[in-house]
UniProtKB/TrEMBL annotation:
UniProt cross-references to InterPro entries, sorted A to Z: NAD-cap_RNA_hydrolase_NudC (IPR050241), NADH_PPase-like_N (IPR015375), NudC-like_C (IPR049734), NUDIX_hydrolase-like_dom_sf (IPR015797), NUDIX_hydrolase_CS (IPR020084), NUDIX_hydrolase_dom (IPR000086), Znr_NADH_PPase (IPR015376)
Residue ranges of the TM segments: none
Name listed for the protein in its UniProt record: NAD(+) diphosphatase
Keyword Magnesium applies: yes
Keywords from the UniProt entry: Hydrolase, Magnesium, Manganese, Metal-binding, NAD
Gene3D superfamilies: 3.90.79.20, Nucleoside Triphosphate Pyrophosphohydrolase
GO CC annotation: cytosol
Limits of the Nudix hydrolase domain: 162-287
Listed cofactors: Mg(2+); Zn(2+)
Length: 307
């Protein structure tokens, strides 16, 4: 059985113009600062949101020019540049707006397309800068360049770019009406999701899928098919989604200690669990599934609808 994603994962939506040409045009970046919008991201990767839109302040209220630790995110529909900084959140001065604190992991459904893209990029870049202040080559201090999209060793000129950690995530099914869902050892009872793991050096995505599933639950899979991808800036991952066929008669073996239990669920059982909501549900169902912000949810929903 083959299927496709029924919708674009929440954090993969296309919103603002990334305007990559501005990153290397210092004059253009500085010139746009006076009218630019500013996204504040606090130490917990939270932002202010109102009516589905991320609250953007005025960059010029922060400084006369881009601070060295600000990152350029692109242009929004009115043509303004958008920058982001790590800073305490500020409430809106508009009395007609009811704003709330939100983050992508727990409240991704609150964000529109533009907000989801801006916050995903801001979190990924600012998290990277926080851990990349010294060169990976010789340990020398580095400084931001390219409007926050790279760092440079000022002595040697060696440039480093944001690191992305690719990880696969896969729904294993029997080609019919059953799929494997698993619970990690650190998760509460009844919370299940798909199998996932980081790609190793010298490994393709498909090879990683086969290795991770065998390591985690002992199954040998075949017919590995790509579905889609999603940024996951917690702190800097890219989730690459697949589905694959496994044999329900093959016994589970929890080889690496990450998985506490796994089970084959029928499509009807998965549909019933999806109807109850997500992990935050107060249902007493024996199966609780991930929330809408995760590509895992989209993959599970797409498989459930395909039958």
């Amino acid at each position: 059985m083959d299927f496709e994603l029924h919708s674009v994962p929440l954090l993969s939506r296309i919103g603002a113009d990334r305007a990559d040409q501005v990153r290397t045009d210092t004059d253009a970046a500085v010139a746009g600062w006076g009218d630019a919008a500013l996204l504040r991201l606090d130490s917990r990767n939270q932002v202010m949101v109102a009516d589905g839109r991320v609250l953007l302040g005025k960059a010029k209220d922060l400084a006369d020019k881009p601070p060295h630790d600000a990152v350029f995110l692109g242009r929004i529909e009115d043509g303004r540049h958008v920058w982001a900084v790590r800073a305490p959140l500020e409430a809106s001065d508009d009395p007609d707006l009811t704003a709330e604190v939100a983050d992508l992991r727990r409240g991704g459904q609150l964000f529109d397309d533009v907000g989801a893209q801006l916050v995903s990029a801001a979190a990924a870049l600012l998290n990277w800068h926080a851990s990349a202040r010294f060169s990976s080559v010789d340990g020398s201090p580095t400084k931001p360049i390219r409007a926050g999209w790279a760092r440079v060793n000022p002595i040697t000129g060696h440039e480093e770019f944001p690191r992305i950690d690719p990880a696969v995530i896969c729904l294993v099914h029997d080609g019919g009406d059953r799929a494997v869902l698993a619970r990690q050892t650190v998760w509460p009872e009844r919370m299940y999701s798909l199998l996932a793991g980081f790609v190793e050096a010298g490994e393709s995505f498909e090879t990683c899928v086969a290795r991770e599933i065998h390591e985690e639950i002992g199954l040998t899979v075949r017919d590995i098919r790509y579905l889609g991808s999603q940024p996951w800036p917690f702190p800097r991952s890219l989730m690459v989604g697949f589905h694959a066929v496994g044999d329900p008669d093959e016994p589970f073996a929890f080889n690496d200690g990450e998985i506490a239990e796994a089970e084959w669920f029928t499509r009807d059982e998965v549909r019933a669990a999806l109807a109850l909501g997500d992990w935050s549900s107060d249902s007493d169902s024996r199966l609780l599934l991930p929330g809408s912000v995760s590509i895992a949810r989209v993959i599970i929903e797409s498989w459930a609808q395909a039958g």
